[in-house]
Amino acid sequence: EDTYKAIYRLSVIGVIDDYTIDYNRRLFILRFRKQEKDYYLQHLYEYVRKFDLQERANRVFTDVPKISNSRGELISEIRQCLRYLVNFTYKRIAAKRKQAIEIMNTACIKGVEGGGEVFRDFINLYFNSKYANAQNDPNLVDDTEEGRLDDISIVWKYMKLMQEDQGGAIMYNLKHLRGACERMLADSPDNPVFILLKSFALFLLETKEEKGKLIVLSERFLREAQNNYIEGFAAFEYAHDELLENIKIYHEIILTYNKGLKGLLNELTDVLLIRQHSRWLQNFNKNFLKEYEPANTRTLADGIA
Question: pLDDT value at position 260?
Answer without folding.
Answer: 95
